[in-house]
What does this fold into?
Amino acid sequence: MIKKCLFPVAGYGTRFLPATKSMPKEMLPVVNKPLVQYGVEEAIAAGMDQMAMVTGRGKRAITDHFDISYELEHQIAGTSKEIYLDSIRGVLDQASFTMTRQREMKGLGHAILTGETLIGNEPFGVILSDDLCLNDGESVLQQMVNLYKQFRCSIVAIQEVPKEEVYKYGVISGEALKDGLYRVDDMVEKPSVEEAPSNLAIIGRYILTPDIFDIIRDTAPGKGGEVQLTDALLKQAKNGCVMAYKFEGKRFDCGSVDGFVEATNYVYENIYKHSIN
It folds into this structure.
């Protein structure tokens, strides 16, 4: 039903400087796999096989990662090291990749709009690679696809956060339809504690309907002078329907050093060590 997933990967990753001065933040490895590959694998698990990347200057490593490296393949062919390429070979066999550039950093809404030419007039997933989501069962995006089949509207993933941290996120309020599922009636981008309508924070997983592109086009710059996806989604919610889903699974904020280290430790102890034994 939903075949395309959009990856806004043009950001600078300033919180990881100087490492990200010449290396895309999305290529930071959690143990032995870059963040963006975890996201692509999640999209594939949700039934999506067309990956649309909105990149920027200095992001060529992402394009190269999702391509064949003939020299490397030749050098390790037939050796014990060849097994280390299995995961990326699997990704390349199951998905196609298209790229376009966001020439100016004007916010997440602008990045989504930049990807319109790659998506077209159909619903699509969005993954922000900074948010690493891990599950024993269905991936977060798969859970959201299942909901889309029922509601056929835009869906955002949400998580309860400490009240004092709401300023880092887009925050929603809405009517609870059942445990963990809300029909959104308000959204605020990075509110103060006093302004926040709840402590339900949007994290980097979305299912969006294609009318969002026209809404973004008509959305003025908001918080920080950027075109905010949150503002466009609020318009969509007021004029139609946007659902918010409290997902099942673990989420690590790998856009922060603390979250990145936490994710690395978790993956090493719970996934990587078991894969090599």
